[in-house]
Design brief:
The complex is a heterodimer of chains A (about 600) and B (about 300).
Chain A lengths: L4 E10 L4 H13 L3 E7 L6 E11 L12 E4 L2 H7 L8 E5 L13 E5 L1 H5 L6 H12 L4 H12 L4 H21 L15 E4 H12 L1 E6 L6 H14 L2 E4 L3 H14 L2 E6 L1 H17 L3 E7 L16 H5 L9 E3 L4 H18 L2 E7 H5 L1 E4 L15 E2 L36 E2 L9 E3 L17 H13 L13 E2 L6 E6 L3 H15 L3 E6 L1 E3 L3 H8 L5 E5 L5 H10 L5 E4 L8 H12 L5 E2 L8
Helix pairs in contact in A: 4-6, 5-6, 7-8, 7-12, 9-10, 15-18
Chain B lengths: L37 H15 L6 E5 L14 E4 L5 H11 L4 E7 H7 L1 H10 L4 E6 L34 H8 L3 E6 L3 H13 L4 E6 L11 H4 L3 E3 L10 H9 L5 E8 L6 H4 L18 H9 L3
Parallel strand pairs in B: 1-2, 1-3, 3-4, 4-6, 5-6, 7-8
Antiparallel strand pairs in B: 5-8
Helix pairs in contact in B: 1-6, 3-4, 5-8
The complex binds thiamine diphosphate and iron/sulfur cluster.
Amino acid sequence: MAKVDFAIGIGGEAGQGIATPGDILARIFARRGLNLNAYNAYQSLIRGGHTFLTIRASDGPVRSMGDKLDILIPLNQDTMDRHLRLLGAGACVLFDSDKIKPGVPAEGVQVCPLPIKQLTAGNKLAANTVAIAATLQMLGVEFKALEDALTRIFKRKGDAVVSENVGFAQTGYDYAAANFKAFPFKAPNLGKGNAVLTGNMALALGGIAAGVKFYAAYPMSPSTGVLMYMASHARELGMMVRQVEDEIGVMNMVIGAAHTGCRSMCATSGGGFALMTEAIGMAGMIEAPVVCIDVQRAGPATGVPTKTEQGDLWQILGAGQGDFPRIIVAPKDTLDAFQTIPELFNLCDKYQCPGLVLSDLLISEGTASVDPKDLDFKVKIDRGELIMPNGNGNGNGAAANPFGGANDNAYLRYKNTESGISPRAVPGMPGHIHVAATDEHDEDGTLISDEFTNPAKRRMMVEKRARKMETVLAQIAPPKLVGPEQAEVTLVGWGSTEGVIREAVEKLAAEEGIVANQLAVKWIVPFHADEIAHLLTRSKRIIIVENNFSGQFARYLRSETGIAAHGHIRKYDGEPFMPHHIVNAVKSQIAGQTELSVPEHEVMV
Amino acid sequence: MSTVVDPIPATTLAPATALTKDTYKNKVHPDWCPGCGDFSVLAALQMALFELGLQPHQVVVISGIGCSSNLPGYINTYGMHTLHGRSLAVATGVKLGNHELKVIATGGDGDGFGIGGNHFMHTMRRNVDLTYIVMDNQIYGLTTGQTSPTSRKGMKTKSTPHGNVENPINPIPMAIVGGATYVARGFSGKQKHLIELMKGAIMHKGFSFVDVFSPCVTYNKDNTYQFFNPKVKALDDLGHDPSDFHKAMDRGYQWNEEIPIGLFWKRTDLPSLEESEPVLDEGGPLAFRKLGITDEQAQGLIKELV
Ligand SMILES: Cc1ncc(C[n+]2csc(CCOP(=O)(O)OP(=O)(O)O)c2C)c(N)n1
Ligand code: SF4
């Protein structure tokens, strides 16, 4: 059990530099070995508006942004006015008393005015440093930790800048010690450092671990972080990273590179994914392994570019005309995002089909701590039945006629094998010449769609491709029921809601005496329909929790298993679930008040 | 663990087998209408590859969708028959994935200038080292005769029964301005000339573009062999200098009793995309490089996060 669990909210206008204090605090906590989760609520503008960053840290697991705020640091009046009401007894608000007027807080909230002008001798840029220093003092963090952090950050600007900032920090630290009441707990130092990264970085790192050599994208929030990370590491790691004219070009280019034998990846959001869909069908038809990440944001159309949603499930299920094998996976958190990508690449190489990842803004732009030991880059690599000139893969050898292949029937690219998997030779390979066509084709690649249409062949090829999927399910982990087997409620979710549902389950038990368990689904296609049906038929009350309006997963579950849930908890206001949203909804559903709960998001951002 | 493999250039694996003209023949016979201009383009490409001594497995011919885009199925090289309009994007991916391959994109005017227009523009400005051959019949053939971006004003087609009221684009000046570094026009009726243009294009380092008047004998009754034969004039005979930008533009726009064919524009002073990307400087094709990263690289990445 966690002994220490606190959250800090920093808010202001876009452009007011919320990211920097947030980053400093996050890194200091992570260096002490605390687990953390940071979620930034922001809008699609570069300056102005309202940005609110929540950093939660604990010595126990941190799976969501949590429910409560312990420290509020408003950088402008608007933030004070919006969020003071979120603070309860024991919490505190730290603010520049020269600029911001405190409202009327709830009872027991400590009001901590900082006379910034006096403390910084009029240096406006130092206000954030003073606020951070005061925060850390009240959390019992020794000054040295902040001094080290500031030294690292300002090192490049020279010693004078370092000592000036350390000086301001010391002033803020001392002022807090003299004037404010510290928290009854101390943020401990667990003596081991954690890594801090966003979900987009984790997805990019997963690609790097998998051996991605080609990455292409067109910028689109909230997926752009993957492009930026890949681009900044492209040269040192020997990856080709391209920004392409549009997402149609992205997917087609990625398929071209994949066809030559490169592990190739791209990321986008729903709008870009819509443009990619015809080409995803091409990857299915020519049997090219590509990985495409859809970082969901609130739709439809341009929607709310900076807000989260799980609204693209049916889009991705139906992406591309016709039937073709695809693998769809929805990682549950940052670390899972990192670990899923290499696993998916192995499956795509083996089954020669597109692999689609459903992330969302919550995972991708959220920041989390990870034990560096878990960032293992020595991943298993399985390229399946790939024929490469350098012997990478199998089935090669000097061909009798280097200019042969389809012409002399020495090589059938789309051979109708029992598994449906046909050995895949890449261009440049002697003796394996063939055409990869999006028209329906015969085993040797010859088109059968025009003049030579042949229903028997068409059927054979459809079945050959489809057959590949029969063995995928056995290679991926089925979802497990977490929590007591005998439960009053089973909370079912998919992808990024795993953490918040877990915390809700714990809260239900600890605070409400309600026994609940949880089923978190990650692999969407293929779907463990039998296993899931088996688990769920024993549940007393199934409630599906998802971040969309229409219950996209609920409908999918029903179509695949015939199971209709008893209740639903849905949120489609752009913001993620907080644990108490789920707890309260479960309570009202158990009380028979409703079967569909739509929690209200209390943090106005 | 990552698979550890030493990259061996594809070329070293090819046994020395004699190339003949027939090496490039495919067992599949074209299903084009008798008399279609595309037959001549196919034959010219096969001859160009033969005369250049390029081995079939080192060449990839990549098309979109259309009558003309069926070409990869009729030539014995690696081929990709992609989506309508997407050949250049796929070809760019192929070239970057394995820059030792000779990559040739082929297709129609609808494919390249209509639905694929955006990729055309951007592939040119990137100066990707590939050759783009458009069989420009000024009509949509495969969909049975609708107007195309290169259909002349006034032309009656199935989708413009009262005559086309839109202005056509002119691919030659567009390519010159767009950044292509080798811009030529050929004619199916002048196959020898076309072979030379193709050879120049294939050996050119950078984006080379050959727009070929390739008559659709079934659906375009305006731009026929009879229409072009008396009009086409080789630029060589007109004393054209392909390094002169303004003259190239003037000749590109010329459309009267005399329609120039040949090499309009060529420059060799710009690096291609592959030459501009240090990632390709050494280590061979990306496709054949070892997967995964070293321990030191992994430690470096993790260090940035703590
Ligand atoms: C996305 C999409 N839209 C439309 C089509 C139908 N289509 C196939 S070929 C073609 C036009 C062909 O014209 P062109 O590219 O000039 O080639 P041609 O047949 O004249 O050689 C069209 C519209 C398609 N295959 N895909
Ligand atoms: S329809 Fe026209 S372009 Fe198509 S094959 Fe026939 S003649 Fe050629």
